[in-house]
């Protein structure tokens, strides 16, 4: 696809309005979060790296471990991810939250690898103030291209796989709350107060009455 000049101009104006830095994140209820994002086929031309850098800065400032373009009001199939990981490498983390280097995903898709699923609390920058337990595939095969056009085809496991699923779902017009056990929904404050001793949600499931399957 050739450059879409009208779209490019609109996004450039939006970026310039925010000094090509941190952008506002749209919240649940905004229609763009419920649209299937358009496939990226070069519509932005040389503006793409500028947009991706603003997405990276926005993700880090939030802070978050991933950000999809619809979350900044742009319905294109673009996402960025980065996670330093958590905890001591010698301490068991049931989430398998290992470090994930910064990467760009263009037109990503995923498919489950194996039958294993895991359930953990998950939040979203576009659903501020809340978290809920979401069952996800433990391992997925990610296919996409990166910002240079190179093919991405890899298997991720644990928390990196969860990030891939979360961000790719955004590009399908889906939010994590669509897949969550709604009885697990908690404010960030109550999650910290009652369920922060361990990332394992088993006690929360027992007390609040939701399954972990």
TrEMBL record:
Its cofactor is Fe(2+). The active site is at 167. One of its GO terms (biological process) is translation. Signal peptide: none annotated. It catalyses: N-terminal N-formyl-L-methionyl-[peptide] + H2O = N-terminal L-methionyl-[peptide] + formate. It is an enzyme of class 3 (hydrolase). Its EC number is 3.5.1.88. Binds 1 Fe(2+) ion. Fe cation binds at residues 124, 166, 170. GO terms for molecular function: metal ion binding; peptide deformylase activity. Keywords: Hydrolase, Iron, Metal-binding, Protein biosynthesis. CDD domains: Pep_deformylase. InterPro entries: Peptide_deformylase, Peptide_deformylase_sf. NCBIfam families: PRK00150.1-3. Belongs to the polypeptide deformylase family. Removes the formyl group from the N-terminal Met of newly synthesized proteins. Requires at least a dipeptide for an efficient rate of reaction. N-terminal L-methionine is a prerequisite for activity but the enzyme has broad specificity at other positions. This is Peptide deformylase. It comes from Sanguibacter antarcticus.
